[in-house]
Amino acid sequence: MTAATSDIAAAQVAHADGQDAATIVARLTAQLRRGTGTVGILYATDLLADQLETMLTALREHTGISDWFGTVSLGICATGREYFDTAAAAALVLDLPRDAYEPTWHITDTPDIERIAQSEMAGVLGVIHADPRNPGVTELVDQLAERTGSFLVGGLTGSRTEYWQVANTLFDGGISGVMFSDKVPVVTALTQGCAPIGPVRQIGPCDGQLVCELDGASALTALETDLALTLDDDDFAAAVSDIHVAMMVEGSDTGDYLVRNLMGIEPENGWLAIGDEPEPGQQMLFCRRDAKSADADMRRMLGELRKRAERIAPGAEPKAGLYHSCLARGPSLFGYAAHEVDLIAGEFGEFPLIGFFGNGEISHNRLYGYTGVLTLFF
Question: How many folded domains does the chain comprise?
């Protein structure tokens, strides 16, 4: 088997923090060579949201790159580093021929998707950013994947100020991104932040966000039964604080699931309130969210991604990568900032990588929570 041919001629990464946007831009441009890229990706912490346009203009002038996309969030990452609660930015520059990607675009509703589909703006991979304040974002992501035939990766913007996305200009309220063609070999995978406990169960009667029965018994009885399999003591109240609900993805042949919060317990009737609106007949299971489970699953994902990468590009190392993780991960889960990028480097070595920690993650045509989505370009 021969290595896949890549149209990525080169990739550069730059990242920095600082007291102000001018300092950060100066540090970024000092790391980037002029005239050696065609498309740029910019992620910045939300502390820089009000200066993002100025930063974008400076990067465009320095690099000569007109096509930029990206977003802001509460945390970002780059090769060997994660930034939280500080003004920081990271840029990834790819040198690609013009026919290997579609320029940045943005959409806010279904007619926009139809316009994109009719213009044949489709690709093998779409890297997208979405505004969680748009009530139709879940449907838009699904429709975009279906109409363009692209596998989507990315995340939801997270911010304490403006929810800016970069789509050559600043944009908010919808979805923006870039489509890459098959001229760019790529592998991508998702790691869950939770570990299942107990069996997959079928939902019985339910009402809105309330699950009344599972497998014919009260939902609370099912939870108590599954927790008893893992409890070292009888401290139910402490144990349940780490428990989430996993809604099984219909038709998945990999046991994929969407993690939702366990919102509350109605002990008198044995009902559970969850962060979703289930329907009778759906399947779900309980899962535990902790650092040990998330670490183990990420190591599993990285090992599998390595095997898949070997099949498409034997012996090759990543030329660039994007990592979209959840705000509930990072140091709040693992205890220090850099755990996830350290794991990535441990498997693949150091290479140009950037990403952000958002309000949700996008993989294929769905929105996830508590996950990490790693995309590698070869």
Answer: 2
